[in-house]
Structures are given as structure tokens and as C-alpha cells.
Specification:
Blueprint: H1 19-33, H2 41-44, H3 50-55, H4 61-74, H5 79-103, H6 107-114, H7 117-150, H8 154-169, H9 176-201, H10 205-213, H11 219-231, H12 236-247, H13 255-292, H14 302-313, H15 315-348, H16 354-371, H17 375-389, H18 391-401, H19 404-407, H20 414-440
């Protein structure tokens, strides 16, 4: 990340552009000005990338457990829930991107400016806890991936995860384009893994289509799992991160160009979140076909899913599953660390070296590993902890994007405002319900 600069010691909050980045920005500016000869997909390419970094949070190891259990226990029934949650994710991440474009500031910086000092400090502490909970799930998932793929002990897998995420984060020094490319490539690996799993499983596409066309639930168990999928869809840390990725990437103050820039970024969001949604749906569909139809309805541990896949689909399926888990864990852990930097910088105008944050945030995961605690159970509890922080991200986001004095020509339309508040209320209520059910011991 770049050093403090600008008036009053402000932080621009974006990765410092490198030579390749400046070329990308120049092409983007030319397209916005209407002077480019780029056509077709080439016109969209300079604007693609930020949403792919944000989308990693939607396919992190925490999603694996929920999707696998949902498919194993209820078959294809909850496929519609995955799609509905993905549509909400598209809306929320679009608002986050729009906030960065319109204001030139990220969500944390605006919270610092708009709220009292005491509220800001409370929000910062809470978001730091959320960031560490996020990293706990993602770090553990990557360590499990190393463990399942190579058979190494978890403590060694944890060390390998730390080294790998340091290498990914080191790409920041080369600008935003290499990091976007690597993260997008990792998402591509996960996509190929689940295409392969679906090919092996040969699901019933007619039943899948029916489950999407006719949404339904069956009993309290399906309601709880649907709540888990819907309520834990939007991760608070990437709401902050996405606004920061956009605030200084391509800058324009001309109203028509800002509108055009936002339209391009909406395409980025739809494509990236669409891929993430397809991966989540593939997880659930694979579990439905493989586990549910075999009568295995309780896949309460990622390790169990890995072991069970081999006799059902063959050794290649379990290997591919481990690769996808490793890829998801590594990429999301790196993105979580980036989000933590943005949160600290935005709320309290302070940064620490990225390697220090990496060491601090991976400490809880290493403690869990060395104490021998159940990794999957820890993943689930970390997702519940994330729920506490969600209202402090999503409510300010919707409030700020409703304000014309902040957003100018990009202020939410009446329809967007209604949809945004509706999604925000639904997500917050579902998260609160999930917390209540978790601590009340309901099943």
C-alpha cells in the first residue's frame, strides 16, 4: 500500500499504480472520453478486476461448509437460496464500488468523517475483530487444503499457508493489475475444479431447474441452513475493501464519465459475482448429487466431505476438492489482510506494515491448529462472529449512497434505494437470526 500522502496526512487507500497499471488507466480514460477505438470485450477489459478481488470473499472456506451441508441434507432444494443471495451480493458490491467512484473515498474514511469519534473507535475495533475472524476462517481453510492435498500435518500446513499468502500480498508492490490477474486466475482454478466435480457427479438438471423455479423450504432445518446461506452472504470486510479499490483506480469528475465508469464497473460486479455464485451453486449441487442421493445427509466437516468423495466419485474428485479449498483459502486470506489494512487506515488514519498485519491476523488460526481444535467448527463460529459486524458496514453504505451531497449524479435512484434498504434489512435480520439459533443450540 502507498504511504501517507496528500493534505492533512490523508491516505489515498489504493495500491500504488505501476507502469502497467498506468497504461490500463490511460486506456480506460480514453474509453470514457469516447476517443478509443477499442471494441467488444476490449472496451470492458481495463475496468475489470476490482470485483473479482471482492468476489473471493463469497467463495471462501466458510462457504464450503454451508453449501456442502445444505446440498447433503436437502438435495437441490436450496439452490434458489444461493441464487437469491448472489443477486443481493451484486447489489451491495455495486453500491460499494459506486461509493468509491463518486466520493473518491472509501467507506471507512466516510464513517470517520460523518460519525462521532467514539462511534468511529467502536466501529474500528469491531471491524478489526471481524477482519481477524475472517482471516481465521480463510487461513484455516487454506491449511486444511494443504493438509488434505499433501497429507502434511496441520501445523506445517499453517506455516505453508503463511508463506503462500505473503507471496500473494507481495504482488501489491507491482501495482493493482498483477494482483487482480492472480486473484482472477485463482478464481478460474476454483471454477475449473467445480466444473470437473459437476462433470463427474452428473446431477439432475431438471430437478435443479425446478428448485430454482419453485422456491421452497422444508422444516426448521432447511430454514436454518437457508438463513446461513442468505444471512452470511455479504461479508463486511469486502464492503469496505471494494470501495477502496475503486476510489483512486480510475478517477474522473465529469458527470457523464462517472456514469459511464459506473456502468462498466457494474459489468465487472455482475461477471465476478456471477462466477462466485456459480461456484457456490456448484458446491451445493455436487453435494446434493454425491452425498444426498447416497444417503449421507450429515457432512459436518470438510475433512469428511473430502474422504467421502473418493469412494463415491473416485480419487481425482477428492484431489480436485482439496485443490479448490486450498485456492479459495489462499486467495481469500490475502484479500482479508488487504481489507484489514483499509479498515485501519480509513478509521484511524494509521497503517502498519502488511507483514505485521499478516503475522498478527494469522496468530489465532495457528493457535487453533496447535491446540488441536476442530477446524470446521471453528470455521462455522468465525462466520457467526462476522454477523455481528455486518450492520456496521451495510447500513452506513446504504445511507451514504442515498445522499446526493456525497454521491452527486451517482446517488441511488428511488428503486435502487428501496432494493438496497430491503436487502440490508433482510441480511441484517437473517444474521441476527443465525446468531440467535447458533447460541440457543437450535438445529
Amino acid at each position: 500500500m502507498i504511504d501517507p500522502a496528500g493534505p492533512e496526512g490523508s491516505f489515498p487507500s489504493v495500491i500504488e499504480p505501476a507502469a502497467g497499471d498506468r497504461k490500463t488507466v490511460a486506456v480506460a480514460v480514453e474509453i470514457l472520453a469516447g476517443g478509443s477505438e477499442q471494441t467488444g470485450f476490449a472496451r470492458f477489459l481495463p475496468f475489470m478486476g476490482p470485483a473479482f478481488i471482492a468476489s473471493v470473499a463469497y467463495i471462501d472456506p466458510g462457504n464450503f461448509a454451508t453449501n456442502l451441508q445444505g446440498g447433503a441434507q436437502f438435495g437441490y432444494m436450496l439452490t434458489w437460496v444461493v441464487i437469491a443471495s448472489n443477486l443481493m451480493a451484486m447489489l451491495i458490491q455495486s453500491l460499494s464500488a459506486k461509493l468509491g467512484i463518486a466520493t473518491g473515498k472509501n467507506l471507512a474514511e466516510l464513517c470517520r468523517e460523518e460519525y462521532s469519534l467514539s462511534v468511529v473507535w467502536v466501529m474500528w475495533v469491531l471491524m478489526e475483530i471481524v477482519a481477524m475472524a475472517t482471516d481465521l476462517a480463510e487461513f484455516l481453510g487454506a491449511a486444511l487444503g494443504f493438509n488434505l492435498l499433501f497429507g502434511m500435518p496441520l501445523w506445517l500446513a499453517g506455516i505453508m499457508t503463511a508463506i503462500a499468502t505473503f507471496l500473494i500480498l507481495g504482488l501489491e508492490r507491482y501495482g493493482f493489475r498483477p494482483l487482480e490477474a492472480v486473484i482472477t486466475g485463482i478464481i478460474g482454478v476454483i471454477s475449473v475444479c467445480y466444473l470437473f466435480e459437476i462433470f463427474l457427479a452428473k446431477p439432475d438438471w431438471i430437478k435443479i431447474a425446478w428448485s430454482i423455479a419453485v422456491p421452497r423450504l422444508s422444516g426448521s432445518g432447511s430454514i436454518l441452513l437457508a438463513t446461513g446461506i442468505l444471512g452470511a452472504t455479504v461479508m463486511p470486510h469486502v464492503i469496505f475493501l471494494h470501495s477502496a479499490l475503486m476510489q483512486g483506480r480510475i478517477v474522473t469528475h465529469k458527470p457523464e464519465q462517472m456514469k459511464k465508469l459506473f456502468r462498466y464497473e457494474v459489468v465487472d460486479v455482475v461477471v465476478a459475482m456471477g462466477v462466485a455464485g456459480a461456484i457456490n451453486a456448484a458446491m451445493l449441487i455436487m453435494a446434493a448429487k454425491t452425498f444426498h442421493e447416497a444417503g449421507i445427509v450429515n457432512v459436518d466437516a470438510i475433512e469428511k466431505a473430502h474422504l467421502t468423495l473418493e469412494p463415491l466419485l473416485g480419487k481425482s474428485a477428492s484431489v480436485v476438492f482439496a485443490i479448490s479449498l486450498l485456492a479459495a483459502g489462499l486467495s481469500s486470506s490475502a484479500v482479508g489482510t488487504m481489507a484489514g489494512q483499509i479498515i485501519m487506515q480509513g478509521f484511524i488514519r494509521h497503517q502498519i506494515p502488511i507483514w505485521v498485519r499478516r503475522v498478527v491476523t494469522m496468530a489465532p488460526a495457528l493457535i487453533v491448529i496447535f491446540l488441536g481444535l476442530n477446524p470446521t467448527r471453528t470455521l462455522v463460529m468465525s462466520q457467526v462472529l462476522l454477523s455481528f459486524g455486518l450492520p456496521f458496514a451495510i447500513i452506513p453504505l446504504v445511507r451514504f449512497t442515498q445522499r446526493e451531497d456525497l454521491m452527486g449524479v451517482l446517488v441511488n435512484s428511488r428503486l435502487t434505494g428501496v432494493l438496497a434498504w430491503g436487502a440490508a434489512c433482510l441480511i441484517v435480520i437473517l444474521n441476527l437470526y443465525l446468531i440467535f439459533q447458533t447460541f440457543s443450540g437450535a438445529s
